[in-house]
Amino acid sequence: MSDDRGRTVRSGTRLTPVVGRLMAVNAVILLVLQTVLTSPAFVDLLQFAPGRAVERPWTFLSSMFLHAGLLHLGVNMLALFVFGPALERRMGGRGFFLYYLYCGVG
User: Fold this and answer.
1) Cβ neighbours for 3, distance < 8 A, ≥ 6 positions apart
2) Which residues lie closer than 8 Å to 18 by C-beta, 6 or more apart?
3) What's the rounded Cα separation, in Å, for the pair 85 and 80?
């Protein structure tokens, strides 16, 4: 982006509302699965398995919020933090959220 004098202006790197909420939801889910719901049965119930997709259709969505650990969550949230705000500003909150879900299911 440039101003009226041709100088480059950064569009801002502030955290946008949907990106912030998605980061919080992902972090809370990891925290809950590692502290309260520690049984492997909970992860099994939420993770996507192609052979069980018909009997567990919610796993198309729930699996995108599961992470193998803190490092996995950190890397994914870093990517969301770097690329998400610019996309959300361009697409709007609702459009970005739908795009996030679409990419996660895909």
Assistant:
1) 9
2) 84, 88, 93, 96, 97, 100
3) 8
User: How high is the pLDDT of residue 106?
Assistant: 82
Length of the chain: 106
CA separation, residue 9 to residues 13, 17, 22, 77, 88 (Å): 12, 22, 27, 25, 18
Write out pLDDT tens, residues 3-24: 455 544 455 568 999 999 999 9
Q: Is the pLDDT of residue 92 over 70?
A: yes
Report yes or no: 67 and 73 within 8 Å, Cβ to Cβ.
Answer: yes
Q: pTM, whole model, 2 decimals?
A: 0.80
